[in-house]
Specification:
By secondary structure, the chain is mainly beta. The chain has no helices and eleven strands. It has strands at 3-7, 10-12, 18-25, 34-39, 45-51, 61-63, 71-75, 81-86, 95-101, 104-105, 109-113. The strands form two sheets. Strands 2, 4, 5, 6, 9, 10 and 11 form a seven-stranded mixed sheet that branches. It has a four-stranded antiparallel sheet with strand order 1-3-8-7, with no helix packed on it. The radius of gyration is 13 Å and the shape is globular. The chain starts with a strand and ends with a strand.
Length: 114
């Protein structure tokens, strides 16, 4: 079975930072593009960032305009990990954050900025 497990969420103040992690099992991360998405209460799911499956030399990342310049997506060296470094957090970043890969989602980790 494929499992994606997020961690690293929490309660922080505006301007602070968090680092989210996603660990995968049952799927080879390196063969797939990987994404972070989020959903705030009462709002639709919002795509946050994606990182390609290409070898590291050619790997590319893209970001939603709302997080560009503040968030950084990366892969772990083990290829079973993915991260989202979130800096200069804003209250509007409050949401449940999910990692997604090949149509699979994790259970999410809550980020609250207040």
């Amino acid at each position: 079975d494929v499992q994606l497990v997020e961690s690293g969420g929490g309660l922080v103040q505006p301007g602070e930072s968090l680092r989210l992690s996603c660990v995968a099992s049952g799927i080879t991360f390196s063969r797939h593009d990987m994404s972070w998405v989020r959903q705030a209460p009462g709002k639709e799911v919002e795509w946050v960032a994606v990182i390609t499956s290409l070898p590291s030399l050619f790997r590319a990342a893209s970001y939603a305009d709302s997080v560009k310049g503040r968030f950084t997506i990366s892969r772990g060296t083990s290829n079973a990990m993915m991260y989202l470094e979130m800096n200069s957090l804003k209250t509007e970043d409050t949401a449940m954050y999910y990692c997604a890969c090949a149509g699979y989602w994790g259970q999410g980790t809550q980020v609250t900025v207040s």
